[in-house]
Design goal:
2 domains, globular, Rossmann fold, alpha/beta, single chain
Length: about 375
């Protein structure tokens, strides 16, 4: 039997790098839990990249300098796990998960992989042909080797079971958690950029999967009296700027790039719009809900429907869910209609208040307790 967690167990967390994404945010919160201090925590980064956030102090950090290579990630993590001999291995993101699913079981280490994306749609949106087939085979082959697969939403869980053949017993859902008091305090700060008196906001990396092009088309068709502020940076920036100019939206669609403190901007928006093609559990939506903002979202796989409380309807239809407006994925007409409907102050006020109440179910204290209860159950296992 392994030693009791009343003694300091060695827990190793693995992630590709510390970027701006939801996985990094989730790991940050897990490591800040008071229960983490009871263990010897090691943080492993597969790649040496500029770090977008300051992570909590840990016993030791390791950078494997895998340079994006899956093979190097597996070989170097396997070597490190053999040296560290951890009591538990936890990974986040697909490449880290694949490496952990090889290294952990090979050394007899209890292993948990955390899947943050609706994996089948995420892979299909980025890859094709033989590479897509290879990447789709990895979770099917490797994830059954681990002790537990954690999905960030029920949609991600169902996708792992249906598209990758994982057993019901292997996969469970633990959603993102939110420090609501901290988000509200951040929202009360002064904005770092000049803001118009009223506006709509959208937040996310400027990548194709976030479908800001669809949002701009729907915004142009809705022709609201409020400008659209887009917060985020990414490879689609120039194309989106050109699209806005082509639609004569210069000055009305404003791409502000990466904003270090987006909460004061989101808190002052009339509502938030998300047009994503796929998500895991969308932080931008959840954080806006914590600030009492009304939400318009596409019903992409997965997360928005779980947060807003209902799925989308027929093409072109806007569904008023209990906690926001939801439209079919990729449906510009329905998104246009939803933007127009959210211009009604009574709709915004009702759905904003409902959204704020809904996010109480995702308080960080309760979510972290679920993570650490699972971790410690494996640490105390036979």
């Amino acid at each position: 039997m392994r030693e009791s967690v009343t003694q300091r167990s060695r827990v190793v967390f693995v992630i590709n790098s510390i970027g701006t994404g939801g996985a990094e945010r989730a790991l940050d919160k897990i490591l800040r839990s008071p229960r983490a201090s009871s263990h010897e925590i090691h943080l492993v980064l597969l790649d040496r990249e500029p770090e977008a956030r300051t992570m909590p102090d840990v016993a030791e950090r390791h950078c494997l300098e895998a340079k994006g290579s899956l093979l190097r990630s597996i070989i170097r993590l396997d070597r490190l796990v053999g040296q560290l001999k951890p009591d538990l291995l936890v990974s986040l993101l697909v490449r880290a998960n694949a490496a952990a699913a090889v290294a952990g079981p090979r050394h007899g280490v209890p292993t948990i992989v955390c899947e943050r994306m609706h994996l089948s749609s995420h892979l299909a949106g980025r890859y094709s042909g033989a590479r897509l087939a290879l990447l789709r085979s990895l979770p099917r082959l490797l994830y059954p080797r681990v002790d537990r697969v954690l999905a960030v939403s029920d949609g991600v869980r169902d996708d792992l079971r249906q598209a990758f053949g994982l057993s019901e017993q292997l996969v469970e859902t633990i959603p993102n958690g939110y420090d609501i008091a901290a988000i509200e305090a951040a929202g009360a700060r002064s904005p770092t950029i000049a803001l118009p008196p009223e506006y709509i906001v959208a937040v996310g990396r400027l990548v194709e999967a976030k479908r800001f092009d669809l949002l701009i088309d729907a915004y142009a068709a809705a022709d609201p009296p409020l400008p659209l502020l887009i917060l985020g940076t990414g490879p689609e920036a120039a194309r989106l700027e050109a699209q806005a100019e082509r639609l004569s939206l210069g000055g009305r669609v404003r791409l502000h790039g990466f904003v270090d403190d987006p909460f004061p901007i989101v808190a002052r928006a009339r509502f938030l719009v998300s047009a994503s093609r796929n998500e895991g559990f969308p932080n931008a939506i959840a954080e806006a809900m914590a600030l009492g903002r009304a939400i318009v979202s596409t019903d992409c796989p997965s997360g928005p429907a779980e947060l807003l409380g209902a799925s989308a309807g027929a093409p072109g239809e806007v569904v008023e869910a209990p906690y926001g407006l939801i439209v079919p994925d990729g449906d510009a007409l329905a998104l246009e209609r939803a933007i127009r409907r959210m211009l009604d102050p009574s709709v915004r006020e009702r759905l904003g208040a409902a959204a704020r109440e809904r996010i109480e179910a995702f308080r960080i204290e309760a979510i972290n307790a679920r993570y650490w209860a699972l971790f410690e159950s494996l640490l105390n296992g036979p």
